[in-house]
Amino acid sequence: xxxxxxxxxxxxxxxxxxxLIAIFIDINNTxxxxxxxxxxxxxxxxxxxxxxxxxxxxxxxxSKFTQELTHAKAENNKLYNNVINGLGRLQLNIDxxxxxxxxxxxxxxxxxxxxxxxxxxxxxRDDIITKDNMxxxxxxxxxxxCLME
Length: 149
Hints:
mainly alpha
């Protein structure tokens, strides 16, 4: 065999070994990246499980307070309808010890609210019920969802 042929074969072997080394390095890098991706995937799965637990807690809180709000509003509407239909009265508590200016209306009827004032009372009461329920729901959300470990 001639020297040129030996040199060509040696160069081909060196190139082939270089290509094999490059392939092995690439495979090693791929396995390293795969390991990192598996760790990240595991972390994402754990975060997703925590998120699912959070969603369940939030749904429980929402369901609980929605039911309470619905019940309270229904009760308020029932009271309002009873007053409108004459089945009940809206009682106003006053301070009888307060000094009042004497009037010449000795035969005056009991104090009553006008229909519009009565309606506004129940609308305001409904708003208070809604706001109270919202605040209690948010407080429970913070306790059970935001501060959970």
